[in-house]
Fold:
Amino acid sequence: MAPVPHLQTGVSLRSFNTMGIDAHAHALLPVHGVDDLRAVRADPTLNALPRLVLGGGSNLLFTGDFDGLVLQMRGTGIDIVGETGDAVLVRAAAGESWHGLVMWTLAHGLGGMENLSLIPGSVGASPIQNIGAYGSELKDCFHGLTAFDFDTGALLHLDREACEFGYRDSIFKHRLRDRAVILDVTFALPKRWQPNLRYAELAQEVALRGWTAPGAADISAAVIAIRQRKLPDPALLGNAGSFFKNPVVPAAQRDALLARHPGMVSHLQGDGSFKLAAGWLIDQCGWKGRTMGAAGVYEKQALVLVNRGGASGAEMVALAEAIGQDVESRFGVRLEPEPVFV
Structure:
């Protein structure tokens, strides 16, 4: 069997994850296209290793070294590939920066992704998490994707329904986990764009700027300003963005909590349940700005856990567990981490 080109062994992953955890991988392969994945599948030794698909490394936490093969997605390219009656179709390779893609669409006069500006990570990772922010989710502009199936060696072409999107969830966290590797994603961007100002904080930011008829680029600028005020730059302070999902609870539980905590933040969902603000719950437990060893809670946003310098994955996990225990003890609500623990 011929060796797989560009394969690296004993690689530090510190620069490959935004939390800045210094874990090591047994092997790492830069993936530029489907041929690299086929080469791995054809190699019995490599194909037998545990696999980790890595994009921008913004939604994972290394709890230790990874004794397997890291597939680091490097494919690039963004193109307009067609249209439907009401949308323009844009395809981007998995290795493209998510924020770079959003900026590309705006530069080409296309709206629909602006509420998702400045989210770290790669295009290929975005459907896995069904990323979302400021009243918008990836599924709102998703058209389809191409993925490589390690079980069969075939290409999968999945539309929105097939991806089974949920709140920070998709089929790639379930039946296709450890099996499918996303190669490219196609988005449907509306020809008749309308601003999405359902999220109160975004609407307030737009109003403060005096914009009565904001364009997509304006909305993007407002989102970027909000995020930069609230969230640390991973290049300066290691973090994985929002560390916990906002918990969703039944209306009766929300009402009982609100009676005891009148300032509690909650948002009605389409099915009658309520989404609670995890950051508010954590803040009420006194965690904002606190540290445990080199792991800490960001002083401007309690939802963000940070690596203050040299923190291990175990330290980050211990901090997350301590926060979760306090929130559950006080509010009876269990927090679920957003990042994937590896």
About this structure: The chain has three domains: 8-73, 78-190, 238-341. Residues 8-73 form a domain with the Uridine Diphospho-n-acetylenolpyruvylglucosamine Reductase; domain 2 fold (CATH 3.30.43.10). The mean pLDDT is 94.
